[in-house]
TrEMBL record:
<dbReference type="InterPro" id="IPR006917">
    <property type="entry name" value="SOUL_heme-bd"/>
</dbReference>
<keyword id="KW-0732">Signal</keyword>
<comment type="function">
    <text>May bind free porphyrinogens that may be present in the cell and thus facilitate removal of these potentially toxic compound. Binds with a high affinity to one molecule of heme or porphyrins. It binds metalloporphyrins, free porphyrins and N-methylprotoporphyrin with similar affinities.</text>
</comment>
<dbReference type="InterPro" id="IPR011256">
    <property type="entry name" value="Reg_factor_effector_dom_sf"/>
</dbReference>
<feature type="signal peptide">
    <location>
        <begin position="1"/>
        <end position="21"/>
    </location>
</feature>
<keyword id="KW-0963">Cytoplasm</keyword>
<dbReference type="Pfam" id="PF04832">
    <property type="entry name" value="SOUL"/>
</dbReference>
<protein>
    <recommendedName>
        <fullName>Heme-binding protein 1</fullName>
    </recommendedName>
</protein>
<dbReference type="GO" id="GO:0005737">
    <property type="term" value="C:cytoplasm"/>
</dbReference>
<comment type="subunit">
    <text>Monomer.</text>
</comment>
<comment type="similarity">
    <text>Belongs to the HEBP family.</text>
</comment>
Length: 213
């Protein structure tokens, strides 16, 4: 899953209501300002508890994230549509009609129902510190503010562009590493996490997160 393809972004510009305070031009300006190929984004804060040669344990404090949810069958790529709903929120689709800077990471919680083969994804953008105390409310009913409580995760960094198969492989690989190390963690739901714009071609950072028991 890449953050979003450039073609999907271009298509989304045409779907921004012209009556909106920013309109398509403002949306496109926010797009250019936010997709920084150098990766200069405000990041969700965390504390490294432990690091080994194979994985890392981190504590994340309670913070607000803006989220949306989608469902599809295993293998379906529903992430682009979800990303654009969140991008419209930071492009002025909020109660203050305010353009909000992009942050990292984009975290997607993944839950699978083995009986129905339906996957539910909750994709979230971290709300930057300047908006944590007074967070603009989404105008899209399918977008909401999540008050994410403090949590501890296990993870490791992997490079490159990730597709569904590569995410699945990383879930298995990290799970095996943690089991071998004797760590106690929740195998589901898990998070797929990206830090880079589509225009960053090298030194990309991707992570799978498992919560610590």
């Amino acid at each position: 899953m890449r953050w979003v393809t450039l073609s999907a972004v271009a298509l989304a510009v045409a779907t921004v209501p012209t009556a909106h305070a920013q309109g398509p031009q403002g949306f496109f300006t926010n797009l250019l300002n936010n997709f920084d190929s150098r990766g200069n984004y405000e990041a969700a804060p965390y504390e490294v508890v432990k690091t080994t040669g194979q994985y890392e344990e981190r504590n994340y404090p309670a913070k607000k994230w803006v989220c949306t949810e989608g469902q599809g069958r295993d293998g379906d790529d529903i992430s682009n549509g979800m990303f654009m709903k969140l991008f419209r929120y930071i492009s002025g689709g909020n109660s203050q009609e305010e353009s909000i800077s992009m942050t990292v990471p984009v975290s997607t919680q993944v839950s699978r129902d083995s009986s129905t083969q339906i996957t539910t994804k909750r994709m979230c953008f971290y709300i930057g510190e300047i908006h944590q105390a007074n967070t603009p409310q989404p105008t899209d009913a399918q977008v909401f503010i999540e008050n994410r409580q403090a949590f501890t995760i296990f993870t490791r960094q992997v490079p490159g562009y990730m597709n569904n198969n590569e995410w699945d492989e990383e879930v298995v690989a990290l799970s095996n590493i943690l089991n071998t190390a004797g760590e106690s963690f929740n195998p589901a739901p898990y998070w797929t996490v990206g830090y880079d714009s589509p225009m960053k071609f090298w030194d990309r950072r991707n992570e799978v997160w498992f919560t610590k028991n």
